[in-house]
Structures are given as C-alpha cells and as structure tokens.
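Researcher: Batch entry, complex prediction.
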Amino acid sequence: MDSFILYALAAGIALALVVGPLGSVVVWRRMAYFGDTLAHAALLGVALAVAADQLPMAGVGLIGVFIAVVLFWLEKQRDLSTDTLLGILSHSALALGLIVLSAIQTQGFNINLMSYLFGDLLAVNQSDLLLMYGSVVVILLVFSQILSPLISMSVNEELARVDGVAVEKIRFIFMILLALVIAIALKVVGILLITALLIIPAATARLFSKSPKQMVLMSVLMAVVAVVLGLYSSLNWDFPTGPAIVVSASLLFFVSRIFSRTA
Amino acid sequence: MLDNHQHDDKNTETTNHILLSADDIAYVKRGITILTDISLHLHSKEIITLIGPNGAGKTSLIKILLGLSHATSGIVERREDLRIGYVPQRIVVPEVMPIRVYDFLNVTGLYDAEQCEHMLDEVNCAYLLYSPMQNISGGEMQRVLLARALLKKPQLLVLDEPASGMDIIGQQALYETIRHIRDKHDCGILMVSHDLHLVMAATDRVICLNTHICCTGHPDDVSEHPEYLKLFGDAVEGLALYSHHHDHEHDLRGNIVDSEHCQSCEHHVEKD
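Model: Structure tokens for the complex:
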C-alpha cells in the first residue's frame, strides 16, 4: 500500500477517535448548530493563518476558541436565544472569512479554497499526522475527565449543579475541545462537512446503545467504519475523499435504521 | 407579618444543628418582587413543609436555598460541606440519550449496581434498575429521583412538590416513604407541597409562603392560623368535601362509576 493511503487512513482514524465521543455529547445537548458555527468560522481561521504564514490548522483552532469565548459571553446576557446568537456569529464569521480571503488573494497569496471546503485527506503528511495525534491525545484526556459531568448536565443541568458540577466551566471546556476537533477535521472532511461527522456516527450509535458510555464507544466504531468505507470507495472509484466518508456515514445510518425497524 | 420567631426557643436549643439558614432574603425578577423578608432556619432531622398558592415564590425560594439562583438581597448560609439531595418537580430526559435508571443513579461513577438496586428497593422501585429512563412513569420518576438524592447520603433533602401529578393513593404512599427516610437516613427534609392536609402527619413545621412568610409553626397551629385560612380557606372547604368522598373509595373503584361520581360531586360543590 502506498504511504499516502496509510497516512490518509491514520488521519481519518484520528478524527474518528474524537468525533465519536464529542459528537455524542453534541447530539445529547443539541449543539449541532454550534458545530456548524465553528465550521463556518474555520474559513476565517484558514484565511488569517495563511496571511500570517502559519499552519491553517492552528488558525482554525484559535478562531474556534475565540468563537467559543464570544458565545459564552453573549449567552450570559440572556436576552437572545442561543440559536439566534449562533446565527449571528456563524454568518458574521463566514462573511468576514470571505472578505479576508479575497483580500489576501489580491495580495498574491494562493489559496486552494476547494481543499479547505471539502478536505484533502490524500495530501496529509507526516507532520500533519503528528499534530493531529497530539491533539487527539489531549482532547481525549480532557474529555475523559469531564464525561461524567457532561452526562449529568445533559440529563438535567439543575440536578448537576446541586451535585456540585461546575456547569459553566464544563460547558466552556467542552466548547474548546470542539473547536480543536474542528481544526483536526479540516484536512479530513473540510469545513462544509465537519458537522456531519459529529452528528451522523453518534446518531447511528444511538440505535445500538443502552447507556451513554456505550453510545460514546459505538460512535467511535461507526466513525471508523465510515472513514474506512469512504477511503476505500474514494480510492476505488475516484470519489472525493471527504464527501465519500460523509456519504458512508449516512449509508450506515440509514441501513441500520432500516434493519433495526425490521428486526 | 414575620412571626417565625415564635420558635426562637427551639432555634437556640438547636443552633448547632442548623443545616441552612436564610436571613432577610429578597428576590426581585424583572422588577417584580417574588420574595421579600424571608428568614428561616433548617435543622437536621426536621421535616419542614413549604406551602403557598401558585406564584407564591415556593420554587424560587427553594432554588435560592439550593444555590441555583441568587437572592437580590439577604444572606443564605449553608453548613460547611452540606450534602444536599434535590428532587425537582419533574425532569424530562432527552429522548436522544440512551440512559438507564442505573446509569442515571450512578452518573458520578461512585456507586455499584448493588448499591443502586438497594436504594431503589428502599423507594420500592428495585425492578427499574435497568429500565431506560424514558420508559418510566411520572410516579416512578419521582421515586428514582428520590433514590438518586439518597445515594449521596444527604444531610438535607429538598423535594419540590414530590407528589405532583400523582393520584391520592400514590401521594400517600410517597409521603409514607418520605417519613421513613427521615427516620432511617437522619436527614433534614424541606419539601414544597400544595396540600397541607396530606403532608400534615409527615411534617414537623409548616412555613406558609405568599411572597413573604405568612405564618409558620406546627401543622395543627398553622391550619387554624387566620393568614393560612385567608390563603387556603376555600381550598380547605373543597378538601373537606374531597376527603369525604374519599371515605367511599371502595365504591369508586370501577373506573366509569368513579368519573361519574366525581362529576356529580363537583356539581354538588358548585351548588354550595
């Protein structure tokens, strides 16, 4: 097997390891729109990083953290609902990203927009992988520490609070983790399809899980299968890799729905 | 209006058993005064019932005492490291979360299945251990919430209308359970209830709330108190009628007969 295929596989599995667990919580806490907002803002991160001659992944991570901070601050004001706030943040960031992008393109920077929008898994190199797996380890370590309070909060925030869970703090940490996941996902599926990988494997796993922790593990499994299937079909039939992974995840979702209904 | 000092003798006697005290609490939300002039002490092993009409501020007061919301003015003091078990009115578990009663009880990972089952057994729900949370009934949910609160070995148990939405038999059974809990677990209990007469036997002290504390004391005294009668006078009459036809419970067992009979009762009340 060529090394670029192995690299692609390794990168896809790195992503699967984190989208499963974090995606489960996103599904429980109805944070899909937040994921979308981070993804839209990612374009701004890419543009700024390219302009500053830094790694796009770092730019995406930083912008994600910034969005999380702004959202956290806006949510405290309580006069607008979260989805309205996200709508504002999401589209402001996207529009700003497009402006910065066109500005740096006129400055002579060459940006392959398509590769950021839809991912470029087959172009992953060794240093990308190192950065990805480093982030995966950090994300999973932190996540394992906050999983119990996250489950507790997802069932009922007041009960969690009375039990001594620092709800705001945990929510903020989770947002930061999600921003990091978006940064990892950039190369694999691209900005437009990141949320899909958070939501779909977790939604599939719901069918096969009896407990929250089971759902977390099943989501990882579903995401790994989607990555392998997507990569395989991409190599065999020359499909674009990111979209192929997302379509594989959707196929798993629909097939398992149909089978569980008839079973 | 604040005559909760009538129990001063008891308070000084048990100062070192105070779990939680609130001093001159006021709570204003969007310009509306929800609570004012609230001072109270909760003692260990004491069952206090908070009663009051809808909108009296019962739930707001409980949330302030629990630390879930903050008073506009006044001080709430909790004993250091006070373990509080809280049973909310009801919770809705998101359908999208796969979670069994066991996972819910053991969300902190501190207990094993045996401990959880034992605690469920105490609230007569051991058979629910591995049921999905979404499949259990309202009455069962209250008991599961109670079991979850008790697993923490609380020094103070706070129940917000634990019997809401239950039929009268279920309510009586639940209050029975609550009374046993105090004796067995040695904890103070603060509960909110609409219905003084049902909780009377299980209560040491009643606080009658309507934005401020109208009256407080032993349930027998409070039920005679003019402030209480002003708030609940009509309801008390209605309740007398209700408990009257409850005497004939065995006659009402058949469902259809039951509802017809009730309708005629209501009709009778209207004539009065």
